[in-house]
Design goal:
Layout (H helix, E strand, L loop, with lengths): L63 H4 L6 H17 L9 H9 L13 H10 L11 H13 L2 H5 L2 H19 L13 H9 L1 H4 L4 H25 L3 H28 L2 H10 L9 H4 L7 H22 L3 H7 L3 H8 L2 H17 L3 H17 L3 H17 L4 H17 L5 H13 L3 H13 L9 H16 L3 H19 L6 H14 L3 H17 L22 H16 L2 H18 L5 H16 L3 H19 L4 H16 L3 H18 L4 H17 L3 H15 L5 H17 L6 H13 L3 H15 L17
Helix pairs in contact: 2-4, 2-7, 3-11, 4-5, 5-7, 8-10, 10-11, 10-12, 11-12, 11-14, 14-15, 14-16, 14-17, 16-17, 17-18, 17-19, 18-19, 19-20, 19-21, 20-21, 21-22, 21-23, 22-23, 23-24, 24-25, 25-26, 25-27, 26-27, 27-28, 27-37, 28-29, 29-30, 29-31, 30-31, 31-32, 31-33, 32-33, 33-34, 33-35, 34-35, ...
Length: 803
Amino acid sequence: GVRVRVVDFGLSRPGGLGAETPASGPDRDASLLSPNAMISPEWVVQSRLTATGAMVGTPVYMAPEQLRHQVIDARCDQFAFCVMAWEALAGQRPFLSGSLAVLIESHRRGTPAPPTGSDVPPEVWLALQRGLEVDPSRRWPDMEALVDAIGGVLATDGRWRRRGVAIAVVGAAVLAVPWLAARADPDVCAALGPDGSAARARLDRAGEARGRSGADTVVDALAARTVALAEHRRASCLAGEAVADEARVGACLDRADARVDAITEALLADGATAAVMLAIDREPPVTACDAAASWSPPLPDDPVRADAVAQVRRAVDAAMTGVVLGDAGRISGSAVGLRALAEATGHTPLIAEVALFEGELASALGDPERAHARLLEAADLAEASRHDAVAADAWAAVLRVAIRERFDAEAAREHLRRADASAARIGRPTETLQLRRAQLAALEGDIAGARRQLEPLVAALPPGVGLTPQRWAVMDGAADIEEAAGNLDGAVALHLRARAARVAYAGESAPILATVDYNLGKLELRRDRAEAAFAALMRAHEVWTRSRGPDHPDHPDHPDRPDHPDHPDLALVHAALQQWEMQYGTLAAAREHAERVLAIRTASAQPGHPDLGLAHLGIGAVAVLQGAPAEAITAYRAALSITEQSFGAAHPETALIQLNLGEAMVEAGDGAVAVADIADAVAILEGAGGLDAGLMAFAHRVHASALRAAGSDGAALDALDRAEALGADVAEPPEAALRSLERVRLARRNPARVRWSEALAIARNAVAAVGGDSAMMLRRQLDALASDPPSASPAAGATPPAP
């Protein structure tokens, strides 16, 4: 009869995808920090993302007007020659070129200063600087004038003539003219960005990925994303935006390209299609980059700092993509230096991005307090530097953590207000925030309000299984709230639909099915479908243990399994299996699962976390059934203390534990003492509204027991009548049996109102429907009651002692 909360509702993240791969190849140097940067290049976190978006081929030699598809003439050749000459004389290019966006931004800052300490004649640098003017009208009239200017200086300087530099430079000018003319395609923009064929070819060659169910869908999605980015880049180029705007839009597209490349590499590494689809689905639409000029702060004016920011930003993108792909454990070690790198640049928008990453990483690693602190820092820094996109991401993330991980409704209300404002500022869709509103309402005990919030989202879901991963969260959240409202059939239907959508993406053996199988298992348990419940729970248990590999302490092949595992996912299944054993199996097995849950939560949750309270609740539930009410009272009081601190004394979660404590006190003979607290708990649950009938039936049954213990039989019978009316259509055999036993106890003392023989017959049928050790315990209680029937005709007003 005890109500063990097996509902945690936290969605598990998919396991690790792939390994980090350093950039390699002829363009690897373009992805490193500049040798002149204030940050040591060896600090940069290298990943498969760093080479993506680097300039390859000829764009580094193109004039600004050529990159923007404006008038192309001989002055473009002059510019390209000066870039090559500068590179030959200085040992580095005059403009930073980590990516197209960085190159355009570097052009915008104007002609570079000559390198310090150079022994090249100043007149040569002046000549080259004129040839590198961003405004073509300010360059030399033609190549001949430029070459004459440089040649004249070198001819009068014997040192340089003897070293042959004049010959090399002038020779380069002669060779450059026909090469540049051939390279100056009339449609430069058409060559910008990949067309998706390379990505598809890589995936097509990966037989492992193509051989998995759902891989074709992922390949199509990746190729479509690549093509969309390339087409948008070309369209942006043809539009001829202002140089400053073009740089920011280009930087946004560069980062999007890099993330797609990382996602592709993850699929090639181990074919985890479901996680890849989640990552693709999280990508913003390509048109979002059009607003980059308004909500993305510019790079620092100093070109060295700007290049450093661009490089660190790539590393942050790499790490964040790894977290999205479920690889937080590995990322946590490789991303340690990102904070120091960002702070060394002194660029506040970048530090905000790193803080956002750190918060998401902490959340993925199960540290909600650190996550909350870092995400708030990210929001503050982003707003201070007008980095509106990061501010919107940070407020949305801190809202999620407050609701789903910290259970802090008061903070969540404030975070929701800020998240709404930041999303509106950049025109971001608010579907996710609508889901959070519903979850916040449920957290505050307003189940009816939560259902109203979710109704439009559920109604807008397209038919069938072709749902994007973002829509899975809507179905999962709606199912959770339907369960809380007692609509178990509706909750099951939503979870089955969510499962079918996941299977369509990833196949029947995908690890991502573990969460939905767990949810289905606990629902089938409440619907009294023992076999279906056990099968679903064991599927979830197997996936969550084996996905951790044989080194995981809960894995069946672990050579030396300790007393408890160290990952919180499995606590969910153990709690549900505890309830299964209490209903259908042995109390010894139930006790083992309860202890497992407590060990997991003690190892993984912060002191005072609500999950730890639920773990103590499980210990108390088994203790009551094992006839150890004193132990149960101790466990329940520990749970009550934690829950009151987390939710407050008037929250339904607190009321639920107060009821369990009251039941244990009745068993211990102290029911009269608990009457007032139990009555308060019942009132809280009734006031919450929308709670499921089974929960309310339990509440009134416990209240009836306490009233009986206090000698208020009339009030006890009224409470029991309410319990039986509410529980009539709820498939919970143990609870139905406990209600029937309570009526037998009241019948002994109130034969005028309750017929003993009828109550006893109903109790026998109810107990017979219960299985496992719980049935044995209930039969013993029933036999004890049946052996001591009431006197044939008690005196008016007489009350026989309770058994």
